[in-house]
Amino acid sequence: MSSAAEKAFEELKETVGRVTVDNPKMQAKNVDVFYGDKQAIFDVTCDIGKNEVIAMIGPSGCGKSTFLRCMNRMNDTIPSCRVGGDILLEGDSLYSSSVDPVMLRARVGMVFQKPNPFAKSIYDNVAYGPRIHGLANNRAELDDIVESSLQRAGLFDEVKDRLNAPGTSLSGGQQQRLCIARTIAVNPEVILMDEPCSALDPIATARIEELIDELRENYAIAIVTHSMQQAARVSQRTAYFHLGKLVEVGETKTIFTNPTHELTENYITGRFG
Amino acid sequence: MSVTNLILVTLLLTFLYFVFGRQKAFAVAKTSGGLQGMHSLPSHYGAYVAVWCALPALAIIVGWKLFEPTVIDSMLASSIPDSVHELGEKSVALYRNEINNAVDSNNIASLTDPVKQATATRLASLQNSAMLGLFVLVLCTVIALGVFALKRITPDMTARHRVESVVRSFLFISATIAILTTVGIVLSVLFESLRFFSQVNLIDFVTGLNWSPQTAIRADQVGSTGAFGAIPLFTGTLLISFIAMLVAVPFGLMSAIYLAEYATPRVRAIVKPLLEMLAGIPTVVYGVFAALTVAPLIKDIGSAVGLSVASESALAAGLVMGIMIIPFVSSLSDDVITAVPQSMRDGSFGLGATHSETIRKVVIPAALPGIVGGILLAVSRAIGETMIVVMAAGLAANLTANPLEAVTTVTVQIVTLLTGDQEFDSTKTLAAFALGLMLFVITLVLNVIALYVVRRYREQYE
């Protein structure tokens, strides 16, 4: 980082660009995250709109994954992690004492960096969520949920003849789509994706990106990515994180063609990161 | 002048040659364009020379000591009086023994018979000259081979690779020794068992319901038949192992789940070693605990509720054995549960599953093959366990499934058959080897299955 950029970062008091949207699904307000004594996120405020894909970009270690994991309280599973500020889902706080983080995660689903199918059959992988939440009254309903989830994830045609094969027998791209099917099977409102394509080849990546675009019709999606091309392709809005601060948020088009902040420009143009 | 001294001298020379080799390498390097021009480092050359000195010398010492007694014996034969030879092999052996003892203890004067004294003196002088010969031979070999190896140090000589291959051979030999020992044990048990089966029908042994191994030591004794039906012993073993697993599997598995999933790092750091200490308690201590504490307790409880409990019961032995085995189950299960990737747990949490749902439906199914493998290993441990059952299960070969009665196990019978005054070729003692063989086969099969299952599990994540 050049000394000028360093100075710009020091002087950064407020996120550049419009952090709010007109019809928000989720709203993060002044979020701080600490791992033990170390602060990982500094005062981040940002909305996620309905039917929108927001991309979170930034250099490694900038806190974008940490921020993502706050939005369905996955950070609760890390004992040393502490979250300050507040995050609202449909206007209700996620961190109020009346919220059950387990039930919350059924509303805010998550797809992980590495495909992580369970050591079960393809069918059981998708049926896992509906079963634990009692979404199906009988086997036929469960079959329907599994089929429609696989269909929406664009995987059904490839696996319909071998639903009883182990999930781990699929290719990497298929496994990731299986994980997406598994997530949408519990019918969440928001889907968080943490670098969902980083372990996939370009063809599988293109397939997932198409899928993300289709899923936007029904869900709000937040995606963390290291690929700026991917952010440009799939998202409507983009948030740029740097060393735990949210530097700039805006329309994806604007961010990639005409960024306001010097740091964002440096990153977009490939001067560092 | 003893072999120990000789070996020490050899090692000292070897070390000196290592130093010489190293210096020679430096000298060679100086004349041939520096250390970079040498194939190996100076210490490799030193090690190369040392190997040339030590290995042949040690081989000579071992070989010499193997053949020395035979050679000396045959040389000594002429000085053993004919009167002893006429009495036959056994007397000669006895005579030799007496003389050997006198020489070994350096006390020839204690022999009262002058003839024996003469023989002993001759033996001592033979041994002395043999030792001298060995000393000279070994020292000459070491020095000559050392000089030879030093001569071979050139910049091109691949000392590093050659030393490596010697090291590799050593490692291979070490591994082979363990395997050969196992083979030796199996063969010795197998041949003794074959002798047993030439006296008792194999089918009768495997299917017989009656175990009463009392055979007559003298021909005029009563009750000399003996019955060798192994079924009561194996049912006893199975009953006690079953009770032990009933204790060990639930407690072991649940403590493993607690340690792997719920315990904070601090609790885990304290509890896990404590739990594993159970495996370090000598089994004889468990036996005392079972026989003196648990068995009377069970008997008291039984009589309080109106059950008749034998003072030595399968239940007492099984319970205590189960506690002993808990760490085997918990430690192996803990390992496989920890090996289930965190990403799989995250996937389950991310779908809104609780911690216990995640454990029951994702973690345990994924770890199941490994857990089963661990349990099978614990079973073979239970089957082979001896001390607890010797002390707490009794000796009566009852064919029963009632855990409150006294039963006996295969291992207990092996112990009782082989302790006390026995002839080592009677049917009774040979039966111990047959039992041992069957036990070995059973645990071997269990271990093979367990290792197969565990290995398949490992492949799944690597």
Features:
heterodimer, A: 273 residues, 4-stranded antiparallel sheet, 10 strands, 37% helix, B: 462 residues, mainly alpha, MetI-like fold, 2 domains, two-stranded antiparallel ribbon
Low-confidence stretches of chain B: none
* Name of the CATH class of the largest domain in chain B: Mainly Alpha
How many helix segments of chain B? 16
* Alpha-beta content class of chain A: alpha/beta
What does the radius of gyration of chain B come to? 32 Å
Number of strands of chain A: 10
Helix share, percent of chain A: 25-40%
Largest interface: A-B, 29 and 20 residues
The outline of chain B comes out as: flat
Largest sheet of chain A: 6 strands, mixed
Strand order of the largest sheet of chain A: 6-7-8-3-9-10
Helix content of chain B: over 70%
Characterize the quaternary organization of these chains: heterodimer
- The CATH topology of the largest domain in chain B is given as MetI-like fold
Report the portion of residues of chain A in β strands.
15-25%
Shape of chain A: globular
Rg of chain A (C-alpha, Å) = 19 Å
Describe the structure.
The complex is a heterodimer of chains A (273) and B (462). Chain A is α/β, with parallel strands linked by helices. Chain A is built from eleven helices and ten strands. Chain A has helices at residues 3-11, 64-70, 101-107, 122-133, 139-152, 156-159, 172-184, 202-215, 228-234, 252-257, 262-268; strands at 24-35, 38-49, 53-57, 81-89, 92-93, 108-111, 190-194, 220-224, 237-242, 245-251. In chain A, helix 8 links the parallel strand 7 and strand 8. Chain A starts with a helix and ends in a 5-residue tail after the last helix. The relative contact order of chain B is 0.09. With 462 residues, chain B is mostly helical. Chain B is built from 16 helices and two strands. The longest helix of chain B has 41 residues, at 159-199. Chain B has two domains: 3-157, no CATH class; 227-461, MetI-like fold, CATH 1.10.3720.10. Chain B has a two-stranded antiparallel sheet with strand order 1-2. In chain B, 76% of the residues lie in helices and 1% in strands. Classes of the chains: A alpha/beta (273), B mainly alpha (462). Chains A and B meet through helix 3, strand 6, helix 4 and helix 7 of A and helix 12 and helix 13 of B.
